[in-house]
From TrEMBL:
It comes from the Bacteria. The keyword Zinc applies. InterPro entries: Aminopeptidase_N-like_N, Aminopeptidase_N-like_N_sf, Peptidase_M1, Peptidase_M1_aminopeptidases, Peptidase_M1_dom, Peptidase_M4/M1_CTD_sf. One of its GO terms (biological process) is proteolysis. SUPFAM superfamilies: Leukotriene A4 hydrolase N-terminal domain, Metalloproteases ('zincins'), catalytic domain. This is Aminopeptidase N. Its cofactor is Zn(2+). Residues 21-191 form the Aminopeptidase N-like N-terminal domain. Belongs to the peptidase M1 family.
């Protein structure tokens, strides 16, 4: 039986015939040679009768595959590892698939640039969105396929290691240090990351949510200044969106400049060019923090729904601006509406297509749609919609249809969904109401 395509935006990734409930990764990395050796156990469950599993793995070579304790037939061609199970799984049946592999990890080319494992001048980062996760571990690479993780990562002792999850064990063995992280909340593959660098860890806030900075020592002063208002952002967002969904929040700042900031589960990554100490990019600090609710706790079922991640995170920027005494959401909405009105009116927000799913119009039009909904419903109902949306789907997967159903359930007049239809499914830019 051939693999079932998982998402039309990324047809070469994912297999919808099965899901992974847990990943157990045991990784050994040599910084000087960029050599990664790993063993990955995937606890899989069949979503349909299946005899062969298509597992995503890029630039790394498998050397052994077992199902349970049984060695099985497998073939690796291009970005896929096809595993033949000893016997077919019926719907709901489970199996443990273990892959031993190694190689020199590197990014994979995609329609959105190079993504995945990336060597820095002195260290590593992983930027997996949307298709880079298979550059460092075998996986079912689809945003809807969320799993828990245990990640053991051993590398040279002078280097600090930050991985998505909570550090539960650390052991020094000669010149090497083994770090073990656990991610107990379901996580999409693209939100798993590793950072290796000459970093120092600093606690920015102990509570109510522990917030940690991981950065090179020479950058500490400028970065802590830039992040000084992040604890207030956390207070605002927990009040508006509900409890912070993970155990803690880590901001990693690389020594290298980066093209864009990156979010991962319970973590954000910035280059020093975005945290200069002058707070010129503070909106991005708010944006990446907001992704912990919108994108990480609530993850899209398919990439066409990406506005649910980026529209909400962009609108969170405007909410922070308003709450901190800077520009109001009204002012920012008017400003961005004018800019969008001058751009081509050919984007369908709820299905932008793979070529434009990260277009800035998705971010801004998504935020404008939420602002229009807020103006229509009024603040009490709008923020009730947002908070209950987050609570009802905590750690789950969501779609545009799910959001519209949720809005409709809380809209007493029943006319909010038609209003959103113009923003989501029509190409002309609707008129913008003011709050």
């Amino acid at each position: 039986m051939s693999a079932t395509p998982a998402d039309p935006y990324v047809p070469t990734r994912g297999d919808a015939s099965y899901g992974v409930e847990h990943y157990d990764l045991d990784l050994d990395y040599r910084v000087s040679t960029n050599r990664l050796a790993g063993r990955a156990r995937l606890d899989v469950v069949a979503h349909e009768p299946v005899r062969r599993l298509r597992v995503d793995l890029v630039h790394l070579r498998a050397t052994k595959v077992t199902v349970g304790r049984t060695a099985v037939k497998w073939a690796q061609r291009g970005p896929h590892l096809t595993v033949t199970l000893p016997q077919a799984l019926a719907v709901g049946e489970r199996a443990e698939v273990t892959v031993t592999y190694s190689g020199n990890p590197r990014p994979v080319r995609s329609s959105w640039g190079e993504v995945g494992w990336e060597e820095l001048d002195d260290g590593v980062l992983v930027a997996s969105q949307p298709t880079g996760a298979p550059t460092w571990f075998p996986c079912n690479d689809h945003p809807r396929d969320k799993a828990t993780y245990r990640i053991a990562f051993e590398c040279d002792s002078p280097y600090a290691v930050a991985v998505t999850g909570t550090l539960v064990e650390q052991r020094v063995r000669g010149s090497r240090t083994r770090h073990v992280f656990e991610q107990r909340h379901p996580m999409a593959t693209y939100l798993a990351t590793v950072h290796v660098g000459q970093y120092e860890q600093v606690v920015l806030a102990d509570g109510p949510v522990r917030q940690v900075l991981v950065a090179p020592v020479p950058l500490r002063a400028q970065v802590t200044t830039e992040l000084s208002r992040q604890p207030r952002m956390m207070e605002l967002f927990t009040r508006l969106f509900g409890p912070y969904p993970f155990d803690d929040y880590t901001v990693v700042v690389t020594a290298d400049e980066l093209e864009i900031p990156l979010e991962a589960q319970g973590m954000a990554t910035f280059g020093p060019n975005y945290l200069s100490g002058r707070r010129t990019h503070e909106r991005l600090v708010a944006h990446e923090l907001a992704h912990q609710w919108f994108g990480n706790s609530l993850t899209v079922k398919a990439w066409r729904d990406i506005w649910l991640n980026e529209g909400f995170a962009c609108y969170a920027e405007w909410l922070w601006s308003e709450a901190s005494g800077s520009q109001t959401a009204n002012a920012l909405a008017s400003q961005h509406w004018r800019r969008l009105s001058l751009l081509p009116q050919d984007l369908v927000l709820a299905d932008p297509g793979p070529a434009t799913m990260f277009d800035d119009r998705v971010y801004k039009r998504g935020a404008l749609a939420l602002h229009a909904l807020r103006a229509h419903l009024g603040d009490p109902t709008f923020f009730e919609v947002v908070a209950t949306w987050v609570a009802a789907n905590r750690y789950g997967s969501v779609s545009t249809a799910d959001f519209l159903d949720h809005v409709d359930d809380l809209d007493a007049d029943g006319d909010a969904v038609p209003l959103l239809d113009a923003w989501l499914w029509q190409t002309p830019l609707p008129a913008l109401p003011r709050i």
